[in-house]
Amino acid sequence: VLNLDDCQVGPNDAASDLSICLQKSPRLQALILNGNSLELDGLQQVLNALQGSHAALRHLDLGANGELGEQGGALIGTYLMESAHYLEYLNVEANELGNEGIAHIAAGAYHTRVKELNLEANEITDVTCLLENPMDALNILNLTDNMDLEVAQVLQLKKVYATVLVDDDIQEQLDEGVNVLANVLGLTHLD
């Protein structure tokens, strides 16, 4: 486990030095880089180093590393598709990936064993890509703090994945809809 949570690793010499270290770490199983400022350049260096190391990484935390946007999502998605065959946990929260960024990640994660995916606070409004590329191993999908998610799409996600975490207001709408349906069908409340 290499835990560099909030260690000010940025797209400069620190990311370059980390990349050299990662290339020489084929047994690395967990990398935690949450709360740094990798930005796109640092992210590219880290992912290239991980690919070159051939590490059987199981846990990757890239949360809160800047405004990565669609390009960052594409980099992560490519890494997932090509090198993350053993990955079980991926955190990419708070990177402003948007709909396009998560589409790349969903396409890449489709080829992995990811069991838990944290997409919290990424300015996501459309989750169609998570339905089009269902991840068989995925058990927990965190979509909290993504405003304007459509309740109907979230309901579809809940049919595909065991646990879908959303904001309280969306969950309340889902619960209310279930109770209305239960009343229509003459069933008791399902609280």
- In total, the number of strands is 7
Gross morphology: elongated
**Which structural class do the helices and strands define?**
alpha/beta
Q: Name the helix and strand elements from N-terminus to C-terminus, one letter apiece.
A: EHEHEHEHEHEHEH
Contiguous uncertain segments of 5+ residues: none
Strand-residue fraction?
5-15%
Overall residue-averaged pLDDT value: 91
**Helix fraction bin:** 40-55%
For the report, how would you describe the main beta sheet? Answer: 7 strands, parallel
Task: Characterize the structure shown.
- The protein is an alpha/beta fold.
- The protein is 45% helix and 10% strand.
- The protein has seven helices and seven strands.
- The chain has helices at 13-23, 39-53, 69-83, 98-109, 128-132, 151-160, 168-184; strands at 2-3, 30-32, 59-61, 89-91, 116-118, 140-142, 163-165.
- Strands 1-2-3-4-5-6-7 form a seven-stranded parallel sheet, with helices on one face.
- Strand 5 (116-118), helix 5 and strand 6 form a beta-alpha-beta unit.
- The radius of gyration is 18 Å and the shape is elongated.
